[in-house]
Design a protein that fits this description.
Elements lengths: L8 H46 L2 E8 L6 E8 L8 E7 L8 E2 L9 E7 L6 E9 L5 E3 L4 E4 L1
Antiparallel strand pairs: 1-2, 2-5, 3-4, 3-6, 6-7, 6-8
Length: about 150
């Protein structure tokens, strides 16, 4: 072997191995980020669902407000149990239409009974109500359980 010239065959194999190892580490990092985001979103949804199960919400009464067509006095009661909710969405129905989804307007704590005036449809005969929580991003997450009150 001449002086100044080295056999570079062994070095090529080492460099190739290092590049493959680095690419594998980068690929694992990318996969980890994707998997972590999916798991975090799934755990938030499970957290909201488990909170919803513990909330016991009931409609006590619904009656028309005299002199105000389409307005109804709605009384909701929350029983003991569950975390603090973000609020309640309500919707009034008659035989052919609904008044749209509206926020109840006040938060119900455990053992609270509150009455609010809700704008609906004329000749309403059914109320649907759903509790919701506010997630870490500030978005309303509706519970899957919807209560119904026929009057």
């Amino acid at each position: 072997m001449e002086r100044g010239k080295m056999n570079k065959r062994g070095l090529d194999a080492i460099v190739t191995t290092l590049i493959i190892i680095l690419l594998a580490i980068v690929a694992i990092g990318i996969i980890w980020v994707v998997v972590r985001n999916v798991v975090q979103q799934g755990s938030e949804q499970i957290d909201i669902s488990s909170k919803c199960i513990a909330v016991d919400l009931r409609a006590v009464s619904v009656s028309p407000v005299s002199g105000q067509v389409g307005n109804y006095s709605v009384t909701l009661n929350r029983r003991a149990g569950g975390d603090a909710i973000g609020g309640v969405k309500v919707s009034l129905f008659n035989d052919t239409a609904n008044g749209g989804v509206r926020d109840f307007g006040v938060t119900l704590n455990e053992l609270d009974t509150k009455t609010q005036t809700v704008v609906g449809v004329t000749e309403a005969n059914k109320l649907e109500y759903t509790a919701y929580f506010v997630d870490a991003s500030g978005n309303e997450q509706l519970c899957s359980q919807t209560g119904t009150f026929t009057f």
